[in-house]
Every structure is written in C-alpha cells, then in structure tokens.
Amino acid sequence: MNSSSTSATLEAPKRLVIASRESRLAMWQAEHVQACLKKLYPGCDVQILGMTTRGDQILDRALSKVGGKGLFVKELETALEDGRADLAVHSLKDVPMVMPEGFDLACVMAREDARDAFVSNDYASLEDLPKGAIVGTSSLRRESVLRAKFPHLEIQALRGNLDTRMSKLDRGEYQAIILAAAGLKRLGLASRIRAYLPYDPYTPAAGQGALGIETLSKHPNIKQWLAPLNDLPTLYAVSAERMVSRQLGGSCEVPLAAYALWDQGQMQIRSFVASVDGKAICLANGNAKVQSVDDAEALGLAVAKDLLAQGAADLIPKITK
Ligand SMILES: NCc1[nH]cc(CCC(=O)O)c1CC(=O)O
User: EC number(s) on record (predicted)?
Assistant: First the structure.
C-alpha cells in the first residue's frame, strides 16, 4: 500500500507494535502509550516489544563516559528499521537532541512533574545532611549544583534503573539520592520523595518528565495516528529546551539544564551551563510570547546565544567525533 494513494481521511490502524526498554519505568511508559492508543483506536491490536539496550547493560560507569544519551535508544531504533516495531517510546530526556537521519520525534506527550526529587531514609532535605554525607547521582547537572551549594557533601555516582537506585539507597550505600520526580511518581514511589527541589537552582534536564515517541520518517501514517497524543504546552516547552541543548552540543558530558513552562501563550525558560565543580556557571532566563514550535525554538535559540555570549562554550568539552 502506498500512502500517497490513500484518501485524506486516514483509516484507523489495525496493529501497532511499541518498542520499549524493559525497565519497570520504560514498561510503565510503554503501557501508558498502549492504553492511550487502545482508547483512540479500539479495534487496533497494540503490542509491546520489550528490549534491553546498551545503556541498561553498562552499569559500572557514568553515562557521560560511555557514550551518552543515544545508548538508551539505539536498539529501539533498529527495531523500527527492521519493521519489528512501529513506534518507540522514550523518556524524552534520553532522546538525542539531533534525531538520526530517517527518524522523527513524532509525538510529545503531556509532561509529568519535571522537578528533581530528594530521596532519603534519614534526612528530610539536602539542608539537613551532615558534612561528608554521601549523595548519589550520576547527573553532572545535579552534581554541579550540589557542589556549588553544599561543598561539604560527598557526591557519588549512582547508576542503574530506578529500582536498583532505590535499593542502593536502602542498603545504606548513600545517605540520600537525587532522582527525577517523574519516574518515582509513575512507579507509585512518590511517597519516598522527602523534598522537591525547586527549579531555581535545581533546573531539570531538557525534556525531563516528558514522553517522546519516535517513528521512522518514512511512515507518515504513524505520525498522524499519534497526533492526538501530542500535548501542545509540553511540545512547546521541550522544543525550546531541546533547542538550547542542541545549540550547546546536546551531550551529557557537560552540566546543562533547560526548563521551560508555557502557559496561555507565554513562555518562560531557565537554562544553565556549568562546570562539574559548580565553580563556573552561565545562566540565562528567557520570556516570550510563543504560539508555535517555531516561536519556542526561536526563544531557545536566543537563550543559547545568551549563554554562549557569557562564555558557555569554554565549559563544553570539545566534541571528538
Ligand atoms: N537519565 C535517566 C532517566 N531518564 C528519564 C528518567 C526519569 C523520568 C523522566 O525524566 O521522564 C531518568 C532517571 C532520573 O533522571 O532519575
């Protein structure tokens, strides 16, 4: 069947296969998309294809040292290319800023809480932690803010899926850990959150808390089928955030934060690039009327230029590819 020969009204899909990582969070997200699609297309058989990615296998090194964001999405993209799956569901935070040739970010769904969360069994907040307390995070962004604000704390790497991270905390390897609130909420672990970290200074990563659905560019029907799942305020916000990140190299080898909020035509954005020790920081805030993805990207571009004018490029390791 040739898509150019179909009429203007697209027929409902008959079968859709969702590629997903197999972690509990990824499966929750895939099942969420599955439920939304079943509701939209009651006659459609929606299946989930669970897969293990390199990012799930390499657990002994910081993500920034083993190749970054692409690690969690590559195997899923191969499944799309091979026709084993029609769409791949990702935490948008893990989706590279520049989509590989032949793939589209077809849909951005409504955002969960985008904040970072403080989780601990013994302490109610970062402020309560004593000198030398061990705080787990593998995010350079979180590390730089923590080092700047709390030089007396010991920041240590924390890898693995959410359940692994929580069990490392519960075994006493850390006094506290910092995680995205979104993942904890989705898995019913919100009660473990002792404090929500405010957007200033704990600005989240671009796309944090949002779900992105990736498809092959050459299957426009799937993009149309997914269109009703798009959430416009989230799409605008993450378009601005991802533009900032893209302009600044889009890697996770540098502490880089970008968070935007779109409300009734107006967008606010806050972004920083910093050194891991927290000693140097370039910080930019933006505010503009936004009524399209193009407007959102223009604001993201302006924020990136502001950061670069402050010398952000000096904080970014040279790309060696
Ligand atoms: N980098 C891993 C990752 N990718 C998405 C989430 C959480 C869920 C989300 O942000 O949507 C996490 C874990 C974390 O940062 O604690």
Answer: 2.5.1.61
